[in-house]
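Quiz preparation item.
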């Protein structure tokens, strides 16, 4: 479906389901990377801390996990929506899908680094930079997994 135009009414909802499934795989892929990099597990704790007004080290691990998986799971359908919007405006197909993935990456990193991370308390500038780098690497893994899985799933529709 991503390769061409939507031809049946069921393809769009099915593509959103593909996006959600791809998002789960992409989030689980991030989980494989997180323990291997410095501050890799910290971004979800930062988000949890911002939501509860606590420093990341005091933030709820359970809430951090929920935030991580909910945000990861919802980003896949957002990617599908953006891809469909771009395809409706300029056409495309797989090239549009890849272009949206390339655009999604700075949106993910920017949202965390510009909006979430500055609101975290109790972090030095050096630690913030390490957390931002960890998030940038994790988000890259996410997009690298998400885009081809959605494209492959879209071909099956």
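Solution:
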């Amino acid at each position: 479906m991503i390769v061409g135009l939507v031809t049946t009414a069921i393809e769009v909802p099915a593509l959103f389901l593909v996006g959600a499934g791809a998002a789960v795989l992409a989030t689980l892929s991030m989980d494989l990377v997180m323990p291997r990099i410095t501050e890799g597990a910290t971004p979800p704790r930062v988000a949890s801390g911002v939501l509860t007004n606590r420093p990341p080290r005091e933030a709820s691990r359970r809430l951090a996990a929920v935030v991580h998986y909910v945000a990861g799971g919802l980003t896949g359908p957002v990617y599908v929506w953006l891809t469909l919007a771009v395809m409706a405006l300029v056409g495309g197909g797989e090239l549009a899908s890849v272009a949206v993935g390339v655009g999604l990456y700075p949106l993910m990193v920017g949202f965390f680094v510009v909006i979430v991370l500055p609101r975290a308390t109790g972090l030095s500038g050096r630690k913030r930079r390490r957390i931002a780098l960890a998030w940038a690497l994790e988000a890259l893994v996410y997009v690298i997994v998400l885009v081809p899985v959605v494209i492959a799933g879209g071909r099956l529709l």
